[in-house]
Design goal:
By secondary structure, the chain is an all-alpha fold. The protein has three helices and no strands.
């Protein structure tokens, strides 16, 4: 159980560092745009700037979501429910938890859409 807690804590620390870096990137993009009069519609660089800003904002949202998933995994660990599939109630294989420590479902119950924890 300590190794699981350590793995989740390490992933959480990495995620917090990634969030901080993305926040700095986003602030840098915004600050750089504040120095120049940007008209996204007519400025040839405007589209690129808007794309960069939107891209970093999307990465920030994904990072926040992953952080929430890790916090929920830590909560499940404290409650003794970590590694239990929310779909069928069975055990999530250790190999899956090794790769996706915040996983809430076994492979069989995992959604077939976009990849999630």
């Amino acid at each position: 159980m300590q190794d699981v807690r350590a793995r989740l804590a390490a992933d959480r620390a990495d995620t917090l560092a990634r969030a901080a870096a993305l926040s700095r990137d986003y602030e840098g993009i915004v600050a750089a745009n504040a120095l120049i009069a940007v008209d996204d519609e007519h400025d040839p660089e405007g589209g690129t700037t808007a794309f960069e800003r939107a891209h970093v904002a999307a990465l920030m949202a994904q990072t926040r979501e992953h952080l929430e998933e890790l916090d929920q995994a830590l909560e499940r660990l404290e409650q003794g429910r970590y590694g239990q599939c929310e779909g069928c109630g069975g055990s999530i294989p250790p190999e899956r938890l090794e790769i996706r420590p915040a996983a809430t479902t076994c492979v069989r119950c995992a959604p077939s859409g976009p990849r999630r924890a």
